[in-house]
Amino acid sequence: MAKKNIKDYLDALVDKEGLRTEVTLTLTDDTLYKIIAALLAAGVGIVVIAHLLKNMFPNKQLAENNELLREIKEGLKG
After folding, report:
1. Best exposed site among 25, 44, 63, 74 by fewest CB in 10 Å?
2. HSE of 59 in the Cβ direction (CA atoms, 13 Å)?
3. Strand, helix or coil for residue 3
4. Cα separation, 38 vs 32, whole angstroms
5. Residue 55 gets which letter from DSSP?
6. CA quadruple 13, 17, 19, 20: dihedral, nearest 10
7. Domains of the chain: which residue ranges?
8. pTM of the entire structure?
């Protein structure tokens, strides 16, 4: 592999007309499949983590409200 120095990088960025601003990206089918798989896995991971956190740390206010509702129902029955 050939070594590149700073002059080579600068020559690639600057030409006779000035600073180059055109960027070309080439994506192969394999690269696109990897990007899609990574985004899909990230989405699934976020959903799974959110679900686990919701179940591991229950909402205390909801539990208190359910307890109060249960007490009110028992008071109305009696």
Report:
1. 25
2. 7
3. coil
4. 10
5. H
6. -60
7. 26-77
8. 0.49
| Other residues' Cβ atoms within 10 Å of the Cβ of residue 45 | 10
Which amino acid, one-letter code, is at 37? A
- Residues 3 and 13: their CA atoms lie apart, in Å, by 17
- Cβ contact 43:49 at 8 Å: no
Q: Are 13 and 19 in contact (CB under 8 A)?
A: yes
DSSP string across the chain: -----HHHHHHHHEETTEE---------HHHHHHHHHHHHHHHHHHHHHHHHHHHHS--HHHHHHHHHHHHHHHHHH-
pLDDT digits (tens, 9 = 90+) for 23-76: 677 889 999 999 999 999 999 999 999 999 988 888 888 889 999 999 999 999
